[in-house]
Amino acid sequence: MSPIHDQSYRRYEGTREPPGRGWMVILRTGLLGLMAKRVFLLVMLAAWVPFVYYAIRMYLVIMYPGASRLLPIDAAMFQGFIEAQGLAVFFVTVYVGSGLIANDRRANALQIYLSKPLLRIEYIGGKLLILAAALVGITLLPGLLLVILQVMFAGSFDFLRSNAFVIPAVTLGALVRVIVPSATMLALSSLSKSSRYAAVMYAGTIFFSEALFGVVTAITGSTRMAWISVTACFEQVTDAIFRQPLHYETPVVVCALVLLGLVVLSISVLERTVRGVEVVK
User: Fold this and answer.
1) Average pLDDT value for the chain
2) According to the model, what pLDDT value does residue 281 have?
3) 155 backbone φψ class: left, alpha, beta (φ>0; ψ -120 to 50)
4) Domain hosting residue 175, numbered range
């Protein structure tokens, strides 16, 4: 006969993780999953092509000063890089963000997540940071590397001394293009069980607002309605951040409020849609 083992109550002898770290698990798992996908790696690699172009441009201008007349190294150049990343930001946002919550809803995993001692804000924060980390990798990281390369190629800090606002401008300009798309895409992903539908809704929002702005501009002959275009709002705010002439007649404050409104609306949507089984303690 096999022995009978005592299965009575025993104290848990494992380690207990302090509360509030659930988002780290979600973030780590999400990033590892992305890194295992070849398509994601190819998209990220393609997103760094503008960085290579601007790095080569800076090197040639510094080695051959005469080229600075055609390709000056100034704040406008760094602004140009941030704006050039707009297309990459769009594709990464759609590819990475469309299924972040939609896939969990389709698999009915949202209730499992939130039936654990996991705060709703931890779940949302972990999912948001997955997309934000990917976008930081193609905006803020290469932008700051360009500043470092400029110093290395020039062998001095003269440029930064005369343009001290460039580093804060690169940081803020990049973060605007990280936070707004991340929050918007996550909110749209929470509204559907289909990642494709979420991607279509996001693309439709961008393209429809741009098309509507084009029609209004053609009719009125004015760009005062630029605030109806998400892309135009990004450009207008970026111009102000880098202290460059504005693209449109719309006040910068209005465009900034539109982008802020998208974030606030997204938070409101997430608060209403991300719900699960509450645990009574």
Assistant:
1) 89
2) 43
3) left
4) 22-271
Q: Is residue 121 part of a domain?
A: yes
What is the phi/psi pair of residue 71, to 5°?
-130, 75
Angstrom distance (rounded) from CA 58 to CA 60: 6
Residue 227 gets which letter from DSSP?
Answer: G
pTM, rounded to two decimals:
0.88
H or E segment and range at residue 34: helix 22-35
Indicate the SS3 state at residue 164.
coil
Q: Is residue 3 part of a domain?
A: no
- Residue 107, helix vs strand vs coil: coil
The verdict on residue 263 lying in a domain is yes
Q: What total of structural domains would you count in the chain? A: 1
| Residue 251 included in any domain | yes
The length of the chain is 281
Q: What is the pLDDT of residue 17?
A: 64
Tens-place pLDDT, residues 196-242: 999 999 999 999 999 999 999 999 999 999 999 999 999 999 999 99
Q: At 164, which amino acid appears?
A: A
Band (pLDDT 50/70/90 cuts) for residue 65 is confident
CB neighbour class for 80 (10 Å; exposed up to 12, middle 13-18, buried from 19): middle
d(CA 186, CA 93): 9
Handedness of CA 257, 262, 264, 265 (dihedral sign): positive
Structure tokens at 138: 């193609």
pLDDT per residue as tens digits for the range 109-137: 877 777 777 788 899 999 999 999 999 99
